[in-house]
Amino acid sequence: MPGTTQISSNSKQGITIAVRENPTHFTPALETITPLLFDSVFLSKLEQLYLLSKKLFRGAHRAERRSRQIGSSLEFADYRNYTSGDDLRSIDWNIYGRLDRLFVKLFEQEQDLDISFLLDASASMRWTPEGSDRLSKFDQARRITASLAYIGLANLDRVNVHYFASRLEEDLGLCRGKSHFHKVLDFLRDAPILEGETRLKPSLRSFAQRMKRRGLVFVISDLFDPDGCEEALALLRYHQFEVHVIQVLDPAELRPTSTGDLRLVESESGQAYEVTATEALLRRYHAEIDGFLEKTASFCVEKGISYAQATTAVPFEDLVLRVLRDGRMIQ
Amino acid sequence: MTFLNAWAVGFAAVAPVIVLLYLLKLKRRPVSVSTLLFWQRVLQENRRRALFQRLRQLFSLLLHLLIFALILGALLRPTLDQQVREGASAVIILDARARMQATEPDGQTRFARARAAAAGVARQASSMRQMAVIGLDAGPTVVSPFTDDEKALRESLDKVPVTDASGDLAKALRLAEDLLSARKGERRIIVFTDRTPPATEAATSTPIDYVDVGTPRDNVAITRFATRPLLASPQTSEVLLEVANFGRAPVKADVELAFDGRLLDVKPLNLEPGARSVQVFPTVPRPSNNSRGWLTAKLNTTDALTADNVAYAVLPTQPPRRVLLVTKGNWFLEKLLAADQSLAFELLTPDAFTPDLATKFDAVLLDNCLPENFDMAKAAGNFLFLKQTPFNTPEPALDQPLLSDIDSQHPALRLVNLQNITFLHAASLAVPKMEGWTWQAPIRSFEHPIMITGTRQGATQRVAALALDVTDSDLPLRIAFPLLISNTLHWLAGEESAPVLSRRAGEALPLAAGETAFDEPQSPWKTAAAPSPHSERHDLFEPLINGFYQIQSRDGTRWLAVNTFSEEDSDLRGEHSTATTAPSFPMISLARFAGWPIWQYLAASALALLVLEWWLFHRRRTE
């Protein structure tokens, strides 16, 4: 591939996963060919960001995220009476001078956070409209996952990635630290091709049952579940997870333009429908999908779930740095 | 009902193919979608309309079969039996008179409108509906005989030129009726004009459709423009000009008089609605030998009809006649001939005169002298004999003759009053009996002729003899004397009828032998392309366009001024101006659509249904 000498890459299955040093050669065309290619400038921007969590979770290791545990960070938490055996260095001598009693200063324990990415790998996510040169929804979802995972890893959080379609599939395993970013990229690059329709409820139930430690969960999907997404998301909330939903869509799904006598073939099931698409029918379709999106967004707002819509037409950097920030997912 | 193209019924075999095509499954374009979730919800509503869908398919099939049936019907060319037997005939009358040059508010002339409308009707010609075209200018002319060739009809309409002539529509209607009288079946006259005449003026037994293409318009026109030489001052002419306002508003305009294209005079005019202004220009010089004598009057105004804003006239350009006076001495005659500017005379004594000299002059006046052995039968030239004439008889002269019979219609006696004139003597004359001559005695004293005139048949030779001696009477002291001598000399010289100087457009002018007229008019602003075609009609010349026409003869060239001068054509207000509430005639629609052949109705219906089907298909109402 021309110009790849400057890229530290390892190609497999035609996809380059790399961290590029020189940002000036990062062009949209290259971005289309190599969806998991990030330049160093963009990564440095990501390092400034922070994945937001409204809840405090118990972590496994000391890290940079506040927790309910008392520990040895610089953040003051409380006082308690001195008891024998306490470290003398933690006695507040100023209090002792004023009250003539011994008190020990307690500090917050900063811990890490478990962040899980539930990535929809169903056939509908791999669908691209005919004649389009845009990325598929799945590629867009993988890039979002990689970006957010990098933010988590840079903040010493524990990151895991799960694929799902009709059920929960394999996962990456917990990773911590930026040095594991290549592992994340490799996992995303080697994404399996899953058959079947999107089934959120069994997938998320399996996830909730499998995860022993609660934390932050990103559900990245088109949410095209015939049974709806509301129950599945509510299930995660029930299991004390903090849920962020990123709905990835293609503009051609939102506003199809083909008219005439059509045979619609679904990418997931192969099911075909014959339809004579008229302007009036398209208008009804637009109203239907607009109603679906509005209903999903309303549900998320009502349940305190962060929700963002990411179409493949939005430039990726703009999506990560603006759309997700507006969705109160990163800061 | 008869089908003219019965072979077209074979196309009916195509109908099952249409039905078969409907039975075939529609091949749909495959389109991949990410999910059918939303399509299913939308289509669930559509399934409820399945019955309507099936009806829609049936409706679509029936619509296509109906269109096919209409096209098949048009191809069969059905015709009513009566029309097959008799057919139908129509005569198109296209008005090409001067008034049709008027422009309408949209900038189109009435004639252009009329021709376009007539072409639309001509397109309906068919073997069952033959048409003829009559052009109406000064008179009706059959431009195209009855034919079913609509292209030939339209081409003949294109060849009809609009003219400056004024004609009578009734003549055209009569000609159209004559054309239609020999034809069977339905008959119709369609008149394309700018003014529908009252029903009483155009009463015919054949139905007439008037297609009125005109609207009331204001117009100012020159209605009279004439010249005449002044008898008192032959070097000048008198010009009469009349301008009329046929509009509904007062008009201020200048009228320019030009002589041979050079401006001569300008007069401002203020004309109230319906008013006329008569102007006289008394001192117009007579043309010199090298001038054409063109006199033009031009109105500087903008109105609907420009053809009548310019008028043409020709000044008289007659050269003086050469006269030979043979006398022993007659003071009265010498002074008279010298005073008459229209005559150039030479004096000769009787001794020096020989009959051969007569051919070199327009007229010879022999005063009381007659050459010896003078033989009237052999003499050439025109002669006026006074007292001694070849027709004298041996009888004694008449004493104080009384003039009993005077033919005042004779050119020689025009305006001559011989009452109360005393004659002492008069020679006794006898009307000769010579073969090849026509003799008259316009002045008689009972049975005695006092004046004899003769004209040689088939030639221009003329002779006049007066039995009087001017010195034996008080005639030289009377005003009748110069008139009698001058009239007689001019008659002898062939001037009893002054040349025609002007004609109205469309008026026929008989041409004399040897005369040839140029067909194309000229004016100070337009010169005929050289060489201009000569008229082939040597006996009758009928100019249709205003302007100056050149007429050539052996004697030289003279000019003829042609003008419209028709108040009927210049008055464009029409009847609509007074009857604004008159119902509008549905003539255009009747003329265009009535009487179409049946196949055209069928074809038009098929076309309309096709357009409807196309419209419905693109809105997914049909499949």
Present the secondary structure layout.
The complex is a heterodimer of chains A (331) and B (623).
Chain A: E1 7-12, E2 15-20, H1 28-33, E3 37-39, H2 40-47, E4 62-81, H3 93-99, E5 103-111, E6 114-120, H4 123-126, H5 137-154, E7 158-164, E8 168-171, E9 175-176, H6 181-189, H7 200-210, E10 216-221, H8 230-238, E11 242-249, H9 251-254, E12 260-266, E13 272-277, H10 279-303, E14 306-311, H11 316-326
Parallel strand pairs in A: 2-3, 6-7, 6-10, 10-11, 11-14
Antiparallel strand pairs in A: 1-2, 4-5, 7-8, 7-9, 12-13
Chain B: E1 2-3, H1 15-23, E2 29-33, H2 37-47, H3 50-76, E3 78-79, H4 81-86, E4 88-95, H5 110-122, E5 129-136, E6 140-147, H6 150-159, H7 169-181, E7 186-193, E8 208-212, E9 220-229, E10 236-245, E11 251-259, E12 262-271, E13 276-285, E14 294-300, E15 310-314, E16 321-326, H8 331-339, E17 343-348, E18 363-367, E19 383-386, E20 398-399, E21 405-406, E22 425-426, E23 437-445, E24 448-456, E25 462-466, H9 480-492, E26 502-504, E27 509-510, E28 516-517, E29 540-541, E30 547-553, E31 556-563, H10 567-570, H11 587-593, H12 598-618
Helix pairs in contact in B: 1-3, 3-12, 5-6
